[in-house]
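Design job #97: recover the sequence.
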């Protein structure tokens, strides 16, 4: 057999191994989810090999009559689900959605406010010296929100004072960006609408993590609280394909459309537009129950870990109002997030290490941070409820606090997972959750 055929076969082997592993694993990565069988069958359609530059009905490519209709359905469903006047479903990811937002609302070099990475901001919001998309790609000058580490949220008064001070120093701010990757509690959007109007600033909200919760009315409602534009990934709490969306008031539609094409994309991954349309329909039908349970599960997981001696952040506020919890693991026997991440993975529990606001002062960085971030979207989708969160906390405690043999815990996790093999909150709940189509 040729070396290339061996590698070709190896790829299929590895895909198979990964799928098997996912069947046996507790996945608590807050930015991930498992899409429904219906979404997965949509994203393997022929659209994946086609082009459709531009807006439906005004394409630069021929052959789009069915693709156009699907994209228009997707736009309508997105507008309905997010109660938005305008939706552009072309961004191929959350970062590209953010780039569309920056392009539509700011000139290169304009100044903006965003959360720092240590306080939960995403790299696409960050400064140029960090290689962040806003700074390095668009040249934006990024000032950070003042953060209240007790409340685990933006400090409204101190941040407003900072913005006024910047204007007094001649450093005009053009854009206020809310949202982040560590996102426990709703951000103070409405508190900043007045000051935005006073100084002629626009407000953006990156809902990559919480878009599913927002869609179902379970977190906050940025477009009604004063945001001019909201971006999202469609595959975190919103259980769609890996894609993005930009939502806004109608008055910004033209600028956003131009940012998508000809600005940022030629091909916009049409198969994922089809998958997104299916996911949006599922969320309109099942999203309330699904997101309700996600949040209950996140709080239950926080409580169960807290009761077992873990230092879960924001205990005084019920740990979280979203799908995530953040845990300071610096006092556990394993001490740093990287070790915890590696040991739990050996036990079939997949989590993220995470920087904590005070890590830098303690000489830590993102490689060996003092925290971990856990999310409940995927396990909730498989039908888990509060009692399963208690079981998960116990598995984690056996590995991290009690130092039990990870192979034994991995076996127990696989056994536990046997009862959770189907996606819930979807039209088709019969096909196994991680099954994939194989033509070869
Ligand atoms: C707040 C935030 N924005 C944007 C993104 C990027 O999304 P994507 O991976 O879809 O580009 C993420 C990813 O986790 C995120 O947390």
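Job complete. Output follows.
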């Amino acid at each position: 057999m040729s070396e290339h055929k061996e590698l070709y076969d190896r790829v299929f082997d590895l895909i198979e191994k990964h799928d098997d592993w996912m069947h046996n694993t507790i996945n608590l990565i807050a930015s991930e989810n498992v899409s429904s069988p219906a979404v997965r069958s949509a994203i393997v359609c022929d659209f994946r090999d086609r082009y459709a530059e531009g807006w439906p009905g005004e394409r630069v490519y021929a052959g789009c009559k069915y693709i156009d209709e699907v994209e228009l359905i997707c736009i309508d469903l997105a507008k309905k689900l997010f109660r938005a006047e305008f939706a552009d479903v072309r961004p191929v990811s959350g970062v590209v959605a953010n780039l569309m937002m920056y392009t539509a609302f700011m000139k290169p070099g304009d100044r903006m406010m965003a959360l720092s990475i240590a306080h939960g901001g995403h790299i696409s919001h960050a400064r140029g010296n960090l290689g962040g998309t806003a700074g390095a790609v668009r040249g934006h000058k990024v000032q950070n929100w003042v953060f209240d580490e007790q409340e685990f949220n933006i400090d409204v008064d101190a941040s407003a004072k900072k913005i006024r001070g910047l204007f007094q120093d001649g450093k005009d701010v053009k854009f206020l960006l809310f949202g982040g990757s560590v996102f426990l509690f709703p951000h103070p959007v409405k508190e900043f609408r007045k000051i935005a109007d006073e100084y002629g600033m626009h407000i953006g909200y990156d809902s990559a993590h919480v878009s599913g919760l927002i869609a179902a009315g379970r977190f906050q409602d940025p477009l009604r609280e004063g945001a001019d534009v909201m971006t999202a990934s469609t595959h975190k709490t919103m259980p769609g394909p890996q894609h993005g969306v930009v939502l806004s008031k109608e008055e910004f539609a033209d600028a956003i459309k131009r940012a998508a094409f000809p600005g940022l994309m030629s091909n916009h991954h049409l198969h994922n537009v089809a998958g997104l349309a299916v996911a949006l329909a599922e969320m309109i039908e099942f999203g309330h129950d699904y997101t309700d349970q996600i949040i209950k599960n996140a709080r239950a997981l926080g409580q169960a870990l807290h009761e077992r001696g873990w230092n879960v952040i924001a205990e005084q506020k019920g740990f979280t109002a979203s799908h995530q919890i953040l845990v300071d693991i610096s006092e556990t026997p394993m001490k740093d997030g990287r070790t915890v991440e590696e040991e739990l993975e050996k036990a079939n529990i997949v989590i993220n290490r995470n920087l904590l606001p005070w890590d830098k002062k303690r000489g830590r960085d993102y490689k060996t941070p003092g925290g971990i971030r856990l999310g409940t979207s995927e396990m909730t989708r498989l039908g888990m409820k509060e009692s399963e969160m208690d079981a998960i906390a116990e598995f984690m405690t056996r590995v991290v606090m009690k130092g039990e043999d990870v192979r034994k815990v991995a076996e127990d996790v696989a056994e536990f997972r046997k009862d959770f093999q189907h996606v819930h909150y979807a039209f088709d709940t019969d096909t196994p959750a991680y099954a994939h189509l194989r033509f070869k």
